[in-house]
């Protein structure tokens, strides 16, 4: 089965155009209804969910909350398409759990590039980390690459693609300070514009998830410089 992209929109014409573009690239696109969120998003073949916020950003935020509140769907990457001039919802969507936002009009190549980066999985440059098949271990953490699972003792969390790539980059050199530019290079597609504030939001989300699992904070913020993992 081809990887599926679920598409939530109140504009059927836009959905038809979007689904055709994805089909050319070998991706299936399924129109998502709010009442079907749990059923459709629970499919194992779902690559990402795209939310078209045009005309109803508040409704899109509710759909986002439904997806993130369900353990079976919370790990699925969420992409938001924001109409030009409506950027005020950008941070609200990030805080609600959206993985990435695109301001319309947008080149289809940018969205396709992002989806292809999700298919590629682990970022390059993971040398120096002990591996065992699709799993590698650092400190007391065990990371299962194929599922983006992070385990600590008997606890585990499933990260979104951006948070997972950020963690992998930070784990390359515990104690080293990684600049926001380095983290952008590791976690986002090439030639993709990312605001520094966006990096902060994703690192903050990663920090909270790890702290809930481990019981303490292991990501340190170095003011005006970046972030570092410190096990202490």
TrEMBL record:
The protein's matches in Pfam families, at most eight in alphabetical order, are given as: Trans_reg_C
**What SMART domains is this protein classified in?**
Trans_reg_C (SM00862)
* Keyword annotations: DNA-binding, Phosphoprotein, Transcription, Transcription regulation, Two-component regulatory system
Question: By its UniProt entry, which SUPFAM superfamilies does this protein fall under?
Answer: C-terminal effector domain of the bipartite response regulators (SSF46894), CheY-like (SSF52172)
- InterPro entries assigned: CheY-like_superfamily, OmpR/PhoB-type_DNA-bd, Sig_transdc_resp-reg_C-effctor, WalR-like, WH-like_DNA-bd_sf
Q: Which GO BP annotation is one of this protein's?
A: regulation of DNA-templated transcription
Q: Name one GO molecular function term.
A: phosphorelay response regulator activity
Protein name per its UniProtKB record? Two-component system, OmpR family, phosphate regulon response regulator PhoB
Q: Which residues form the signal peptide?
A: none
Q: Which Gene3D superfamilies match?
A: 3.40.50.2300, Winged helix-like DNA-binding domain superfamily/Winged helix DNA-binding domain (1.10.10.10)
Q: Which PROSITE patterns match?
A: OMPR_PHOB
Highest rank taxon of the organism: Bacteria
Q: Where is the OmpR/PhoB-type domain?
A: 133-231
PANTHER family attached to this UniProt entry: REGULATOR OF RPOS (PTHR48111), TWO-COMPONENT RESPONSE REGULATOR ORR33 (PTHR48111:SF1)
- DNA-binding segment(s): 133-231
Instruction: Provide one Gene Ontology cellular component.
Output: protein-DNA complex
